[in-house]
Structure formats: structure tokens, C-alpha cells
Amino acid sequence: MAAIKCGIVRGTVIPFYAKQRLRRISLTAPSCAFPWGHKTLGTLRWRKDAALFSLYAVVMNDATTIPAVPSAVRLLLRPLPLFPLGLLLQRVVESMGRRRPGLFARLGIYAEKVFLVDPTDLPFVFRLNPRPVRPTIEVRRREESSTWDARIAGPFGALIGMIHGAVDGDALFFSRDIVIEGDTEAVLALRNALDDAEIDLVAETAAALGPTGEGIERIARGLLPAASHLTGLALTRADRY
Predict the structure, then answer these.
(1) Is 137 exposed, middle or buried (0-12, 13-18, 19+ CB in 10 A)?
(2) 197: phi then psi, degrees, rounded to nearest 5
(3) pLDDT digits over 186-205, tens only?
(4) How far is Cα 69 from Cα 72, in angstroms, rounded to an integer?
(5) What pTM, to 2 d.p., does this model score?
(6) With bands split at pLDDT 50, 70 and 90, how would you rate the model's confidence at 136?
(7) Nearest-angstrom CA–CA distance, 60 and 124
(8) Based on C-alpha coordinates, what's the Rg of the chain?
């Protein structure tokens, strides 16, 4: 393990160390560098200067708090049939494929991969195949998740927050609030495609429902700010309120 340049924390320059294993880089820092007790390194960034690559770590001022789905909501969701939700989500991803043809096409060879999106505080998982021609998504009980090429697991608040740009994906991965398994390059490609698309799930759902979706979206926009405030969940993009 060797020292690589420095990290910038709260305006202070500190040393840190990096060790690369396979395609993953782990970072540590002296405990004296974190007098407030928070030692988790956040977003990893590369900076090119005079043909030399220097490594910097951006450390959050405070630990990111990921809200949990309220227990009452989880209890209500557990006995509900999954077919209606699956039908709605399938309609949404098909609409996104038609309206945003570059979204799934950007995945290239990874578009044929099967992604298991696992919100660990919900009683079901999502099995996504983002093919450009006909993308599919299935809602399944966790014990019936079947085979997959890549798994993305974490609290629902972290997953939807990353989709809506409310939390930094790199920080979530480094803090292990979100855990990935399987084909990590496929996960990176999917995440980059979603980041660039700046997806808002409320707007995408409304578009998938056609003319009736406009009224539903108006009602949702009126209710979501209060719901997001109460639960802490990023139920839509902040710039769409």
C-alpha cells in the first residue's frame, strides 16, 4: 500500500492511501485527519495535471443518512399482489424505450444483461433487462429472484435517491449503502446512462399512461413534496416540484 497524493477534506489537505484490488479501489486515512469522527471517504475523482494523474477524495462533511421506508408502508406492501405494479412498470420502461431510444442503446453489450435491483427494505425485487428493442422489467418476491448478471442492493431511499440525483452514487458505493455483485462494468454502464438521462419517475409514469397521465401527474406533484418531507425519500427530482 503506497501513499498517493492527498485528499481535500473541509478545505484541509490530508494524506490518504489507496489500494487497488481488481477493479475496485479502497481508501483509508489517518484517524487524526478526521477529528469529527467521520472516516468514510466519499466520491473518488481523478485529476490530470501535467501528464500526471493525482488522486483526490471528496469526503462528505457528515455521514449521509439514508431514510428507511416506514415500517407501516412495508407491512401494507407485503401482502399486496405484484402483478399490477409489474404491469405498470413494464409500461413505463417500454415508454422510456420509445421516447428515449438512446437510453438503453447507450448500454451497448450490457443491454442484454439482466439486472436485479434489490431494495432491501421492501418485500420485493425488480428484474430488469434493458434491451433497446423491448426492455422488460419484472417484480418478484425476493426468494423468487431467479438468475441475474448483476445485482444492485440497498435501501429503497438510496436507490431512488440515486435515480433522482438527490444523493451521490459514488458516495453510496464507497459507504456500502449500495452494494453491487456480479458484472460491475454492466452496473457502471447502467448507472452512467441513468445519470445522463436525468430521469424523473413521476414524469416517466405520466408519459407512459398517455392523456390520463397528465391529471395524475398534477395530483402527484401536489402531494409529493409533503410525502418526501415526511419520509425523507426523494420521490421525484428536486427540480420538478
Answers:
(1) buried
(2) -75, -20
(3) 999 999 999 999 999 999 99
(4) 8
(5) 0.72
(6) very high
(7) 31
(8) 20
